[in-house]
Specification:
With 186 residues, the chain is mainly alpha-helical. It folds into two domains: 121 residues, Methane Monooxygenase Hydroxylase, Chain G, domain 1 (Up-down Bundle), CATH 1.20.58.2050; 48 residues, 3-Layer(aba) Sandwich (Ribosomal Protein L9, domain 1), CATH 3.40.5.50. It is built from five helices and five strands; from the N terminus they run H-H-H-H-E-E-E-E-H-E. The strands form two sheets. Strands 4-1-5 form a three-stranded antiparallel β-sheet. A two-stranded antiparallel sheet has the order 2-3. A hairpin with a 5-residue loop joins strand 2 and strand 3. Helix 3 packs parallel to helix 4. The longest helix is centred in the middle third of the chain and has 39 residues. It is elongated, with a radius of gyration of 29 Å. The mean pLDDT is 86.
Length: 186
């Protein structure tokens, strides 16, 4: 289990180092244990040890504050690493010092940045930036009995003048059959 002094020292190292500092892989769980073990005994307010309880409570509040600051510093470093990785393609720097949850976050943010870069490139190349929408909003021109869609779900019935947001394939069938029209989305 981690202690207050150890947490303080970890934060100090994290603050003054450019690289992510190596933390125990179960760091968050260890901090949780520390919190549970050091929760002040609120029920004994008239206890002889009330000064001791007040000090413990203050130290616990400080530990929570240190933990939050540590996580914030690490998030900033992770974002900087994401920027470096997306620009250079190098992703191994500090990767071994990340906590498992940080590795997952790092990989997800990298994917999001890469997708954004692909979208920008596609737009610059004149390709359509709008993917075909899965659903289309249509308005029915006549009553339509219930039917089963391609997933086996029953849909409908629909009355004349009723709006429906249907899968584009189904909407296309109704539009081509003259039973509905596409709602202008602009």
């Amino acid at each position: 289990m981690i202690g207050y002094n150890e947490l303080y020292e970890i934060l100090r190292k994290e603050k003054y180092s450019e690289q992510l500092q190596n933390l125990p892989k179960k760091f968050v769980e260890e901090f949780k244990e520390y919190l549970e073990e050091n929760k002040p005994l609120e029920s004994n307010k008239d206890n002889l040890f009330s000064d001791s309880i007040a000090k413990s409570k203050k130290q616990l509040e400080n530990a929570i504050s240190l933990f939050r600051e540590l996580i914030l510093k690490r998030k900033r470093k992770l974002l900087n690493l994401v920027l470096v990785a997306t620009e250079t393609g190098i992703m191994k720097r500090d990767y071994e010092n990340m906590l498992p949850i940080e590795k997952q976050l790092f990989e997800e943010v990298i994917k999001a940045f890469e997708q954004g870069d692909k979208d920008i490139t596609r737009i610059l190349n004149g390709e359509s930036s709008k993917k075909e929408e899965k659903n289309k909003m249509i308005i029915f021109k006549e009553n339509v009995d219930p039917f089963i869609d391609h997933t086996g779900s029953t849909i409908g019935p629909f009355k004349s003048g009723q709006l429906a947001n249907l899968h584009s394939d189904i909407a296309k069938i109704f539009i081509q059959g003259g039973k509905a029209r596409l709602v202008d989305e602009n």
